[in-house]
Amino acid sequence: MEFLQPKNAPKAVGPYSIAVKSNGFIFISGQLPIIPETGEMVKGDIKKATLVILKNIKNILEESGSSIEKIIKVNVYMMDISKFNEFNKIYAEFLGDHRPARAVIQVAGLPKNSDIEIEAIAEV
């Protein structure tokens, strides 16, 4: 097992690893819409927040020897499911024809009062 901290991704906001590589897979912890260069979190714009998270996931995967095309499963946690269509448009554009298994769940709260959090599992 290898604990990963890619350079082009936000640092963990707690006592956990951003990602773990194990047995041919990369398990990416829930990502908040944090811009790695500034540490700022995107709030109030679900499209921009989704794009920031997906770019961070892409960076984590690429720095870890994988790619978005190798994502197997995605879990999405949203504060407001009424924003689903906005989220889904960005998600579909970003992933193109790649369609991993996915769950989208409305939650009562997220760390740092984020609007969205996304986690992923990918092959190496």
Helical fraction: 10-25%
CATH class category label: Alpha Beta
Poorly predicted regions are none
Q: Report the count of strand segments.
A: 6
Structural class estimated from helices and strands: alpha+beta
Molecular shape: globular
Spatial arrangement of strands, main beta sheet: 1-2-3-6-4-5
CATH topology: 60s Ribosomal Protein L30, Chain: A
Based on CA atoms alone, the radius of gyration comes out at 13 Å
What can you see in these coordinates?
- With 124 residues, the chain is α+β, with helices and mostly antiparallel strands.
- 24% of the residues lie in helices and 29% in strands.
- The protein has a single domain (2-123), classed as RutC-like (60s Ribosomal Protein L30, Chain: A), CATH 3.30.1330.40.
- Strands 1-2-3-6-4-5 form a 6-stranded mixed β-sheet, covered by helices on one side.
- A hairpin with a 2-residue loop joins strand 2 (19-22) and strand 3 (25-31).
- The chain is globular and about 35 Å long.
- The mean pLDDT is 96.
